[in-house]
């Protein structure tokens, strides 16, 4: 057993950055005030929230008042979609999304279908890309929201967000972007992206788990999904998680400060993984060959089960995934791969390797050394 985990699952979650922990610590100990309290300790907490909101707004290119902190990325997706749908019920009952979205979006649309909403799932091509013109064609006079992810969590394909946003803007349809996987890798300027609503999750960019961010452009009317106090300008009740929010904002700022240094390295590692693993007979890259996240190398291998690859890698100290963390452990093939028309048998043999800022050249070399042997051994066992 190796003496350390070689972590290749950064799309599932990331380790908290030590600088982020340092920024958070005072809010667990000395600065424990409730941001709603009017005395000094409370005002300190409120100042920390204000400063966090400004840091996030700076990265998103928006106003601080357009930033809402939530309890996770899933909650941000839920608030954007349910909040917009329920607030627009008088206008229409039609939603548009894609079949490769995260379950935080897909299950939310399915939930809304119980209340009479109808969803159009715009197809994706073999690389997992949505055609913006398909979105334009799907919009009707009943459409109240379009929700498309910035980058896919399983195969890393980047969607043509700015173009989709332009089409939605021209037709005056609110556009939500699940940017949970893109954050920390791709530009997040909401003006450039033509996004009206955008969701983030801090634990994907070396921040704490359990903190989400929702950008909602001024004028977007959302029906709150949590009733209670008037925190977050009435959009999200509940005493604010000050330490978590400070951590989320610090992590986002640092991720973009570090980007010019980290991304070229990560991209080189990704391309080494792709080049090396495509030499294995019966392997295929999944997702777009070029328009993909800089840290995502995902594959399918003929004649093997993704779960067996994971278990064998785990024995050697590697952490990887067959697809989204949320579906790992279930035997159903990935809905993303099926929507991309990957045959079911092949979809069972999927492997997702996602790199991060602390991976080394040696991590990549070690993986490339062991994986071909694992695949060969598993094929012989069948
Ligand atoms: N959206 C995407 C694309 C994701 O990858 C994830 C998490 O994996 C989420 C939403 C949900 O985020 P959270 O885990 O913070 O609820």
Task: Tell me what the structure shows.
This protein has 382 residues and is of the alpha/beta class. Helices cover 40% and strands 13% of the residues. The chain contains 12 helices and 12 strands. The protein has helices at 18-24, 40-60, 73-87, 103-113, 132-138, 161-170, 190-193, 242-277, 306-315, 335-339, 344-347, 361-381, and strands at residues 6-7, 67-70, 94-97, 118-121, 143-149, 175-178, 197-201, 212-216, 283-285, 296-301, 318-319, 350-354. The strands form 3 sheets. Strands 2-8-7-6-5-3-4 form a 7-stranded mixed beta sheet, sandwiched between helices. It has a 3-stranded antiparallel beta sheet with strand order 9-10-12. It has a two-stranded parallel sheet with strand order 1-11. β3 (94-97), α4 (103-113) and β4 form a beta-alpha-beta unit. α5 runs parallel beside α6. It is globular. The two termini are 26 Å apart.
Question: SSE layout and pairings?
Answer:
Layout (H helix, E strand, L loop, with lengths): L5 E2 L10 H7 L15 H21 L6 E4 L2 H15 L6 E4 L5 H11 L4 E4 L10 H7 L4 E7 L11 H10 L4 E4 L11 H4 L3 E5 L10 E5 L25 H36 L5 E3 L10 E6 L4 H10 L2 E2 L15 H5 L4 H4 L2 E5 L6 H21 L1
Parallel strand pairs: 1-11, 3-4, 3-5, 5-6, 6-7
Antiparallel strand pairs: 2-8, 7-8, 9-10, 10-12
């Amino acid at each position: 057993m190796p003496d350390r985990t070689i972590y290749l699952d950064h799309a599932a979650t990331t380790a908290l950055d030590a600088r982020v922990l340092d920024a958070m610590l005072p809010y667990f100990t000395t600065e424990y005030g409730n941001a709603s309290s009017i005395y000094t300790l409370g005002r300190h907490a409120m100042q920390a929230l204000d400063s966090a909101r400004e840091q996030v707004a700076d990265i998103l290119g928006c106003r601080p008042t357009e930033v809402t902190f939530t309890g996770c990325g899933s909650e941000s997706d839920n608030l954007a979609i349910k909040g917009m749908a329920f607030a627009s019920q008088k206008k229409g009952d039609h939603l548009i999304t894609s079949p490769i979205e995260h379950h935080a979006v897909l299950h939310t649309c399915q939930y809304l279908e119980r209340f009479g909403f109808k969803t159009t799932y715009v197809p994706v091509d073999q690389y997992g890309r949505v055609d913006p013109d398909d979105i334009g064609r799907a919009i009707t006079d009943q459409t109240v929201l379009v929700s498309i992810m910035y980058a896919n969590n399983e195969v890393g394909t980047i969607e043509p967000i700015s173009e989709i946003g332009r089409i939605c803007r021209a037709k005056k349809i609110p556009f939500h972007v699940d940017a949970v996987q893109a954050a920390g890798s791709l530009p997040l300027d909401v003006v450039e992206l033509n996004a009206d609503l955008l969701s983030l999750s801090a634990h994907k960019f070396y921040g704490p788990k359990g903190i989400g961010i929702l950008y909602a452009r001024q004028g977007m009317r959302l029906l709150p999904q949590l009733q209670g106090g008037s925190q977050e300008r009435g959009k999200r009740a509940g005493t604010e998680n000050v330490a978590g929010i400070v951590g989320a904002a610090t992590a986002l700022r640092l991720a973009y400060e570090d980007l010019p240094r980290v991304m070229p390295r990560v991209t080189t590692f990704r391309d080494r993984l792709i080049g090396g693993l495509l030499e294995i007979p019966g392997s295929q890259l999944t997702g777009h060959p070029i328009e993909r996240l800089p840290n995502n190398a995902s594959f399918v291998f003929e004649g093997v089960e993704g779960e067996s690859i994971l278990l064998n890698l785990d024995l050697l100290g590697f952490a990887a995934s067959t697809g989204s963390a949320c579906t790992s452990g279930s035997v159903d093939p990935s809905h993303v791969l099926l929507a991309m028309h990957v045959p079911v048998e092949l979809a069972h043999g999927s492997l997702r390797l996602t790199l991060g800022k602390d991976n080394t050249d040696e991590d990549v070399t070690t993986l490339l050394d062991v994986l071909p042997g694992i695949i060969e051994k598993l094929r012989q066992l069948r």
